[in-house]
Amino acid sequence: MSRLVQRRDARPDVEKAPVVDDVGFKDHKPSRRSRILLPLAVATTLLLTAGTVFKDDLGFPWPGEPEVTPPFIREGMKRCAQLNQAPSPHQATEARKYSDRYVKGTGPVLLKNATLWTGEEDGTEVIHGANVWLEGGVVRKISTGEDMDQLFEAAKNKGDKVETVELDGAWVTPGIVDVHSHMGLDPMPELRGSDETNSDKAPIQPWLRSLDGFNTHDAAFNLSIAGGITTMLVLPGSAGNIGGQAFTFKPRWTAENTPQSMQAEPPFVIRNGEWQRTRSWRHIKHACGENAKVWYHNARMDAAYGFRRAYSEGKKLKDEQDAWCAAPKKQTGPLPDSLEWEVMADIIRGHVKVNIHCYETVDLNDLVRVSNEFQFPIAAFHHAHEAYLVPGLLRQAWGKTPPAVAMFANNARYKREAYRGSPYAPKVLDEAGLKVIMKSDHPVLDSRYLIYEAAQAHAFGLEWNRALASVITTSATVAGLDHRLGYVRPGYDADLVVWDSFPLAVGATPKQTYIDGIPQIINPHVVRKPAAAQQITPKGDYDKEAAEAVAARGDPDLRPKKRSPNIVFHGVSNLYLSGIKTQGEGEPGVVVVEDGKITCAGKDCATTSSAEYETVDLKGGSLAPGLISYGSPLGLEEISAEETTHTGDPPSILDDNKITSGLLVHAADGAQFGGKDELMALREGITTGVTSPSTGEFLKGMSYSFSLGARHALESGAIGNHAAALHINVRQFGDPLGDSSMSVATVMGVLRRLLHGEAGQGEVAAAFGKVAAGELRLVASANSADTIAALIRLKRTVPAMRLTISGGQEAWMLADELAAEDIGVVVAAPRTFPMFWDQRRILPGPPLSHLTLPAYLHTRGVKVGLGIVEACDARLTRFESAMAYAAAPTTFSRQDAVDLVSTNLVDVLGLNDGLHAAGGVDLGWVAYEGDMFSLTGRVRAVRSPGQTAVDLF
């Protein structure tokens, strides 16, 4: 469904571009004077340095028998010049008229009337009504007036047709630079034949290169371009401590269609039939911590020794080479070299950007010490979840400039070294004077939404200009590309993004992405955003929370500190709660809560008792039902990578005939409360979790719903429904999230027997009997349209069955059939991504398709909910519904968007089934200050399920 088409060689008759050097800057002809002196200079040089010397017996330089310099010395001297030549890429200036990546036939583009963020003045410069001329693959001119006549005339004389794009004030920024990506190495969809992320040969392999495994056919290129990505630093994986060398790429496909042609700025090129070094930066990947422990069983002591040994080899080689280069003509052998360790020597020379995957304090400290021991600078620590706790340590790294910190906005707590990650870390690090970069680790996070990482950093305290810079100018600088990327300047690469709203607004989406002056999206689908979405949003005020996180060394007490049963809310603009009538006309204005219940809403409300009331001003905010998080192991595990924090997986029901012997697992029996992810989600308005047994087998078991605010399972309202629905997996063969030992046909055969009562008498058979009778909902995890079709066919043979599809990435292909059979869909993850083969036919949403998957299903009459895959993302459930609304504001109302993560999930997950309490499952309610659909809105009060007192934040 992608509408992305590459445009190149559109007009082959265009004037031939001038010759450019390896970084794309025009060669200048020497002056007449220099042309006269050049032969003399060359002759003198040849006389003094050529391979022939004339001496007599006494050593005087008189003509005599010629002595030829050996070839190995001449080659060594050439290498010596390269070794001692520091990276010095040419600075782009207005004189630069053509890029090295210029595509012949690309015509000029005039972007008119833009709201232009240039990256200048610490990222605060915004030019309104800007006109930007793109030509030759570079930015040629920026103006706020009608003074492009000369450029128009020159284009006309060359026969070029200028494409003029009226932007009507749309935001324009430089293209996004992702400094941590595995695109092209970790393939989308995931296929073993093209998975090149890690080598398993050894933990120290600096000689490996990501360029050598880069797949130019990765399906993620188009998607990332649609998110504004124009450059990425593609790193080897982090299985080993030194995984290899990294390279910068632009995701635009080229006519040559090779990895080398997609490089943004190669450190080596093929020139004149030789593999030659350029003046550009090299890059390398290091990794500390748990990954090497898992892959190679290396303790941190092993890793630290491994780093020191590798750098010792590099220093040894550097010293030997320096000694040779100090007196080349006295050498009797060739210049010392090592294919394995030459890059380590180059690091010590300061010619390589060192990027280090490093989470916690002990590892950060190890590498800071190594950098001082061997005297090399560190470009950036990546992930660095504990860096905000030790900013002073980072300043101790060797060199004049401290390492930058390239980080996630939220992705944390999935392993022990990530447990202390904080959403306030970007703010803390920035205020400590360190460079902050937001990155994707694609495909860990889909780099298409890297701007969302910056938006979260801004929402939780980072200034807007620093947040934008964190994915554009700062990232370009740290990657050694700010001489040509990261700013809108004359002479810089014509990599720009036109946005449909302020880039840090919730759901901000590119209207168009230009790479090298070429529009990458043909006939983009654009959503018209309201005027409010164009405004620069203020940062969130989280000074107190950030200070608490630092003071608690990354593990603050997240439990609510204040409670009250009686509250009066003022400044209420909206109620998204059913069954509550407002007193008086217009906005509710006031909402009164007594004993945890809303007793009045409206301008005419007054308190009815003499009890004391807390007063809270919501400043135009709203009250909404508590939101539901479904799809992650929330409530069954605390740290994904630590088995001791799990309740454990049930055994395979396919072994020893267990499928008929009756073992049915109930997730509620392993319920866990008070986890970090749960408490963080509660503070963001998520009151209820729904979890099924954590297993990838065919039969998962019975799900349960629970309160995120409860302290233990016996507290009032802690468990809403002990046995909500029966969950199964029906996934493609080989899907690592499913049972790879069973084909889909086998699963469907087993399922058919169970639904038709042909599998004995046990508890499992009884549960499927209830499913067949319509007394218990069946939730089937499936993504492939073919698998979903098989489930629909089976549903037609069991008419009473109530079925929900979970996952559903290809469900849009069967929307009408799903609606006809009243089959609900929980879209998980809400922003579709072709992670596996059975998800490859996604509906990508704007700008690549008219609607997103949730919106399309909704328009066809399918009841839709949104699911969250990672436990750490549960706290972002509200923002997922806000993005769904922002992407389809004419399809979803605001109430619809709230329903996607509340009442719709109650229905399609069977949360009211089997409950006898009036009103069904209790979701509680949440009070938001400001707009709950904005990243700047925040939770001020939560009434958890089953509670009368209200938690105040």
UniProtKB/TrEMBL annotation:
Domain of life: Eukaryota
Alphabetic keyword roster: Membrane, Transmembrane, Transmembrane helix
Molecular function via GO: allantoinase activity
GO cellular component: cytoplasm
All residue ranges annotated as the Amidohydrolase-related domain in the record: 420-517
TM stretches of this protein: 36-54
GO biological process, one term: purine nucleobase catabolic process
UniProt-listed InterPro entries: Amidohydro-rel, DHOase/Allantoinase_Hydrolase, Metal-dep_hydrolase_composite, Metal_Hydrolase
Record-linked Pfam families: Amidohydro_1 (PF01979)
Descriptive protein name: Amidohydrolase-related domain-containing protein
Naturally occurring in which organism (per UniProt): Cutaneotrichosporon spelunceum
